[in-house]
């Protein structure tokens, strides 16, 4: 029986984790969970899993939740609450599926407490990959990828030596606007951007997929997870999202992981690794039914966010923190209707260009830069 602490329980990955756990009650148990403000969904999850500790976004939500709880559960809130859930003593695994760089300190706390980390929260690795990986190494804690591309790479690496890897190839669906030209992106709406062709995900990551910043963030995530330099990480557009990513070896042999788009598979694999379990209502992949698979090079002028991410990753230091914080703020503003789709890119670029990289940043420095950049982006939006 694996005991799980689940952060971001009410979100897209959180709910699919709940589904995996409910499929295998003999293997998994959720002992602590955290969410933001969705009390209705939170109550449903508390009722199903009966966790001993629950954390929510703020005091107001905590009070609201306490007023509706049928049985006594310890309720905490804020970043401190999130950290308490992440490091919950009884848990073996911490699934981090919270949204954004707020996930960083909980991840570090879970590592310090010796938990296995199942990581969906890619912003954690983008904003402070060097700190997270160093802490995990020191504590001998595995960081198991939940992100489907990284899970595919993890499965395709199959324990081969680092020196035998020639390239990691991340596939990208191209998002909601794959077939639009850059000019056609000027007037796209929030609803259009939220309409992802292959995956059903939270709002922020769906927008990130449309700008392809998601792939940029994933390049940085792959760099840290697999300790591979940026020159050896490529992105390939693959509209069917059947090939989830590939590893090329020095003998030019390529190994990939394939399947239908279903996040429950990488979630479950992170929970069962190195074993596998059945997942009854998933769809079997019959390639004869799919028929054709398409692949295309990424045009870095069309998808500038991918280039920004490579540049920020290579610059290192605080630059990826800036990339991530600016992007989080810009996407949130787009989702509120405060800026246009192409403004997202513009705001990120502006933040990157203004920043002077600080190399080897501490957690304090990262926190400070993250805050400063968010403030600067909000200011830039107000001045428009
Ligand atoms: P969602 O927006 O669907 O869910 C986010 C979750 O985080 C919700 O439970 C939300 O709570 C909670 N949350 C947000 N802010 C806070 C806060 N301040 N304190 C506590 N909880 C908070 O996101 P996704 O599930 O789509 O994505 C989660 C992470 O996984 C992201 O990093 C994303 O990049 C990554 N990921 C997602 C994939 C997907 O298929 N969705 C695929 C691969 C990676 P509430 O809603 O109750 O306010
Ligand atoms: Mg992904």
Automatic annotation (TrEMBL):
One Pfam family it belongs to: DXP_reductoisom
Span of domain 1-deoxy-D-xylulose 5-phosphate reductoisomerase C-terminal: 143-226
Keyword line: Isoprene biosynthesis, Magnesium, Manganese, Metal-binding, NADP, Oxidoreductase
Leader sequence residues: none
Gene Ontology MF annotations: 1-deoxy-D-xylulose-5-phosphate reductoisomerase activity; manganese ion binding; NADPH binding
Top-rank lineage group of the source organism: Bacteria
Free-text function comment from the UniProt entry: Catalyzes the NADPH-dependent rearrangement and reduction of 1-deoxy-D-xylulose-5-phosphate (DXP) to 2-C-methyl-D-erythritol 4-phosphate (MEP).
The enzyme's E.C. designation: 1.1.1.267
Binding site for 1-deoxy-D-xylulose 5-phosphate: 122, 148-149, 173, 196, 209, 214-215, 218
Name of this protein: 1-deoxy-D-xylulose 5-phosphate reductoisomerase
Domain named 1-deoxy-D-xylulose 5-phosphate reductoisomerase N-terminal: residues: 4-129
Family classification: Belongs to the DXR family.
Gene name of the encoded protein: dxr2
Involved pathway(s): Isoprenoid biosynthesis; isopentenyl diphosphate biosynthesis via DXP pathway; isopentenyl diphosphate from 1-deoxy-D-xylulose 5-phosphate: step 1/6
UniProt-annotated binding residues for NADPH: 10-13, 36, 38, 121, 123, 202
Family annotation (SUPFAM superfamilies): 1-deoxy-D-xylulose-5-phosphate reductoisomerase, C-terminal domain, Glyceraldehyde-3-phosphate dehydrogenase-like, C-terminal domain, NAD(P)-binding Rossmann-fold domains
InterPro entries recorded: DXP_reductoisomerase, DXP_reductoisomerase_C, DXP_reductoisomerase_N, DXPR_C, DXPR_C_sf, NAD(P)-bd_dom_sf
Every DXP reductoisomerase C-terminal domain range: 258-375
Binding residue positions for Mn(2+): 147, 149, 218
HAMAP family: DXP_reductoisom
Name of the top EC class for this enzyme: oxidoreductase
Single GO biological process annotation from the record: isopentenyl diphosphate biosynthetic process, methylerythritol 4-phosphate pathway involved in terpenoid biosynthetic process
Catalyzed reactions: 2-C-methyl-D-erythritol 4-phosphate + NADP(+) = 1-deoxy-D-xylulose 5-phosphate + NADPH + H(+)
């Amino acid at each position: 029986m694996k005991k799980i602490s689940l952060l971001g329980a009410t979100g897209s990955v959180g709910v699919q984790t709940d589904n995996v756990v409910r499929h295998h009650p003999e293997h998994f148990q959720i002992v602590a969970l955290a969410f933001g403000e969705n009390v209705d969904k939170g109550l449903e999850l508390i009722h199903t899993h009966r966790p001993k500790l629950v954390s929510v976004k703020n005091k107001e939500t905590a009070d609201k939740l306490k007023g509706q709880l049928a049985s006594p559960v310890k309720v905490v809130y804020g970043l401190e609450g999130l950290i308490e859930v992440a490091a919950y003593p009884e848990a073996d695994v911490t699934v981090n599926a919270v949204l954004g760089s707020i996930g960083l300190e909980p991840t570090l706390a879970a590592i310090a407490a010796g938990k296995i980390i199942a990581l969906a929260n890619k912003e954690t690795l983008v904003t402070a990959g060097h700190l997270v990986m160093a802490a995990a190494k020191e504590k001998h804690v595995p960081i198991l990828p939940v992100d489907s591309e990284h899970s595919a790479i993890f499965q395709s690496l199959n324990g081969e030596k680092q020196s035998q890897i020639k390239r990691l190839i991340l596939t990208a669906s191209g998002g909601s606007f794959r077939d639009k030209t850059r000019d056609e992106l000027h007037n796209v709406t929030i609803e259009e951007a939220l309409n992802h062709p292959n995956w059903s995900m939270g709002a922020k990551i769906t927008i990130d997929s449309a700008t392809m910043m998601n792939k940029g963030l994933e390049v940085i995530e792959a760099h840290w997870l697999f300790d591979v330099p940026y020159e050896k990480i490529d992105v390939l557009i693959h509209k069917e999202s059947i090939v989830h990513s590939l590893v090329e070896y020095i003998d030019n042999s390529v190994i990939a992981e394939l399947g239908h788009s279903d996040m429950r598979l990488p979630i479950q694999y992170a929970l069962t690794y190195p074993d596998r379990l059945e997942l009854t209502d998933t769809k079997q992949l019959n390639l004869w039914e799919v028929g054709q698979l398409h692949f295309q090079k990424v045009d870095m002028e069309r998808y500038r966010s991918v280039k920004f991410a490579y540049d920020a990753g290579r610059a290192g230091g605080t630059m990826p923190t800036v990339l991530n914080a600016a992007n989080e703020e810009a996407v949130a503003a787009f989702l509120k209707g405060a800026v246009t789709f192409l403004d997202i890119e513009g705001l990120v670029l502006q933040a990157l260009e203004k920043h002077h990289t600080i190399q080897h940043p501490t957690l304090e420095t990262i926190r400070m830069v993250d805050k400063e950049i968010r403030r600067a982006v909000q200011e830039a939006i107000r001045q428009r």
